[in-house]
Every structure is written in C-alpha cells, then in structure tokens.
Design brief:
Layout (H helix, E strand, L loop, with lengths): L4 E9 L4 E11 L2 E12 L1 H14 L6 E6 L2 H16 L13 H11 L3 E6 L7 H15 L4
Helix pairs in contact: 1-3
Length: 146
C-alpha cells in the first residue's frame, strides 16, 4: 500500500455526558471505509478520542496517515500535551489526573506504529470528510436506540 491514508474523525454527544457516537472515514485513493459506533453514557471528548483510535486500529500495517479532526482537544493532546502528561505520571500541569487517560494511552500506543500528521478542520463548515465523519458519529448514536 502506497500513498497517504486520510482518516476523518468525529465524535458526537447528545447531552454531555449522554449518549454518544463516533465516526471515522478512511480514504485511500478511490477506496473508502466507514466506521462508527456508540456508547449509552459518555462524553464528547471520549467520542472524539474513540473515533481517532478506531480509525487507526483499522490499519493493518504501518502507514503514512493524515488524520483530520475538528477536535482541538484531540489534536493538541496528541501533539503537545501527551509528552508532558507522561513525564508527570499522567498528571496535568496543575497536578490533576489526566481525564480520559485510558483512551489517551490507547491512542499513544497506536501512533507509534505509523507516520501521522494531525490536521484540525473547523467543524460544521462544509468540509466533506468532516461532514461525513459527523454523520457517522450521529449514526452511532442513532444505532443505540432500541
């Protein structure tokens, strides 16, 4: 597999906390794969992280990846905050435990296997990949209904 794989991710929550969903759209050339899921009680940030995790988990070999997220929390966390959290034994600058540590640890493990560029896109601004990931995240919530 050659070329960059683009992964568009989004998380959604109806209530925060509340029922939540995540969506990831993987694009490689003309090939696309849609992933989505949901949780009955969660937060928006957990769903944003889960979308990135599930997208990266879908890759079967080492890849060059461009991840697109509308979450500053995910992008800043992985690019800036994570190294310091690990140095401080998973504590924030004000010595509080890092929220969503379980998901940050999963994401940290997954990124080591790939060459990744993280991109932020403005949510709900008509960006096709982001709009599709948002629709998948909402599908994840809708699928929770009995």
């Amino acid at each position: 597999m050659t070329g960059t794989i683009r992964i568009y991710t989004d998380g959604a929550c109806r209530g925060n906390p509340g029922p939540g969903g995540w969506g990831a759209l993987l694009v490689h050339g003309e090939t696309e794969r849609e992933l989505w899921g949901g949780e009955v009680l969660t937060t928006n940030n957990r769903m944003e992280l889960t979308a990135a995790i599930r997208g990266l988990e879908a890759l079967k070999r080492r890849c060059t990846v461009a991840v697109y997220t509308d979450s500053q929390y995910v992008r800043n966390g992985i690019r800036e905050w994570l190294p310091n959290w690990k140095k401080r034994d998973w504590k924030t600058a004000d010595k509080k435990p890092v929220k969503n540590r379980d998901l940050w640890e999963q994401l940290d493990q997954l990124v080591t296997g790939h060459e990744i560029e993280w991109h932020w896109v403005k949510g709900h601004s008509g960006h096709d990949g982001n709009e599709r990931a948002d629709a998948l995240a909402n599908r994840g919530i809708d699928d929770l209904a009995p």
